[in-house]
Write a structure and sequence with these properties.
Layout lengths: L42 E5 L4 E7 L5 E5 L2 H13 L12
Antiparallel strand pairs: 1-2, 2-3
């Protein structure tokens, strides 16, 4: 089965270590870009009081812009934890 894939030839890349060619100006040297974010985006955080993993999305400054679950949902979980009947309290009977 013939292979009809052809790859055109490309000229060799000129690196910083290559000597400049006659008649050509040397290419300007640019510094390697530094990473914009020193943190992972999104990041995972464990909320130990609730036993939940929270996914946090951050902006370029590093501030949390969005989370899953949202802050409102986390607050609802905390409120529920505070209102759960404790052990030893008899349930209320209806009827």
């Amino acid at each position: 089965m013939p292979n009809e894939l052809t790859i055109p030839a490309v000229p060799p890349a000129v690196g910083v270590a290559d000597p400049p060619q006659a008649g050509k100006a040397p290419a300007p040297v640019t510094a390697a870009p530094t990473p914009a974010q020193p943190f992972a985006n999104p990041s995972l955080r464990l909320d130990p009081s609730l036993g939940l993993v929270v996914i946090e999305f951050r902006n370029d400054a590093g501030a949390v812009t969005h989370s899953i679950p949202s802050q409102r949902q986390i607050d609802a979980y905390r409120l529920h934890e505070e209102t759960v009947p404790r052990a030893g309290v008899p349930p209320v009977e209806e009827g």
